[in-house]
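User: Hey, my collaborator sent me this sequence without any context and asked if I could get a structure. I don't really work with proteins. Can you help?
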Amino acid sequence: MDCGRLIVELGQALGIKLKFSKADTCGVFFDDDEVIFEQHNGQLYLIADLGSAAGREGVYKRLLTANYLGQESGQATLSLDADHEEFVLYRILDGDMGYPEFEKILTVFVRALRYWKEWLKQAQNVDVAALSTPPLGGIPA
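Assistant: No problem. I've predicted the 3D structure and written it out in structure-token form, which is a compact way to encode the shape of the chain:
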């Protein structure tokens, strides 16, 4: 996978100049939602923080259920960054991929990011059991 080419093409589509840093990372904001791109051994990682996990054990069951086979996470993985006490969404891309396929995957990833950020925000204000079904209409592929 030519990760650098995909990032350059993303920048062109967004009308900005993008490239990986010396640390092989690049960040892009989609409105208020940041996606971090990292390249490692020919793989491209999409990573985004969803919000604080501190004292949020009540949402774990719902997140794990949504995580099952990527059904409600846009094929990404819902995770816990224990060091930073943050919920994280990530996806690893591998293999040959053209820009149109990458853009489609990124679009679904950003939808999932926004979905779960909103769900976690709603879960702060109500009983989590009341949010056991997706409150935002699911994540279209």
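In plain terms: The domain at 3-131 is CATH 3.30.1460.10 (Yope Regulator; Chain: A,). You can pass these tokens on to your collaborator as they are.
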